[in-house]
Amino acid sequence: MEHEQNRRYFYALLSRVFSDILDPKSIEQFRDNSELLETLGSDTVAFFDNNSDDGLEELLNIDFTTMFLMNTHPVESAIYDNSKDIVTGMENLVMQFYMDHGYEINMNDTHIMAPDHIAVELGFMQNAITKESFEVQYKFSKTHLMSWIPSFLIACEEMADTPFYRDFCNFAVEFITSDYAYLKTQLPQDTLA
Fold this sequence. Notes:
The protein is 70% helix and 0% strand. The chain has helices spanning 2-19, 24-32, 34-40, 42-49, 53-70, 76-80, 93-100, 118-131, 134-159, 163-185. The protein is an all-alpha fold.
């Protein structure tokens, strides 16, 4: 049970960090969680130790904007579509997966305009841990998360200017790939095809 709670927590954390710039409250929460900062890495610990909250907010805002708004689009359909178009309607395969599993996305209540945005996909996994079978989680992870997020975040890690985003992208890749491996152990081998 604790392992499943930890999985939910980390998917929620990943979804939050990749959804928007970190606000002052989020920065304070990171600063107050020394164990999480240490998990991310010593460079991130030093980065938080050597900067005020206002300084962190400015540096992280610039880095997030550069990485996820100006230079890339953290959206699955934009990665796979040669025209770099973001598919937002029912023709979006991720949206169809959500609907097939009773996950409703109200795109009117968010600034994120794509159902296959990295933050929404990670949020689905957070929700699926509570509601869905390991088989559904595995299928979503294999078909969607693993197909693009690790390679996308490795590229972002190289682009990051702050230790926080470098370490966080690395952490996210490690978590998503290890969670996928965990899901594989929870299912009979004949269902993994």
